[in-house]
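2024-03-11 09:14:02 INFO worker-7 job=invfold-0412 stage=load source=structure_tokens
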């Protein structure tokens, strides 16, 4: 059972001020490859899973940005840690 939700907005500093969208797409691909449940939203992406696993994904996302040529990365992160179980569906069901 998932015990955490992490929402992340990743903002890489690009080499020559180029568009960040390809970088963001690569960051989302890191999430996709991890196999965790996630949802892309207009300003951030939310992942659902175990806290330690999600934090490791955040680390890999940042590392990927550097691999692609970013000199630095800002990651704005929100964490919901709920040992009894955390769920995106549970938090949003009344809006669906």
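2024-03-11 09:14:09 INFO worker-7 stage=emit residues=96
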């Amino acid at each position: 059972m998932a015990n955490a939700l992490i929402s992340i907005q990743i903002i890489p500093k690009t080499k020559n001020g180029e568009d960040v969208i390809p970088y963001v797409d690569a960051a989302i691909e890191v999430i996709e490859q991890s196999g965790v449940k996630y949802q892309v939203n207009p300003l951030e992406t939310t992942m659902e899973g175990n806290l330690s696993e999600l934090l490791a994904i955040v680390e890999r996302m940042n590392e990927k940005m550097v691999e692609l040529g970013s000199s630095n990365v800002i990651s704005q992160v929100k964490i919901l840690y709920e040992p009894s179980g955390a769920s995106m569906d549970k938090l949003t069901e009344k809006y669906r």
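2024-03-11 09:14:09 INFO worker-7 stage=report msg="The chain has a mean pLDDT of 95."
2024-03-11 09:14:10 INFO worker-7 job finished
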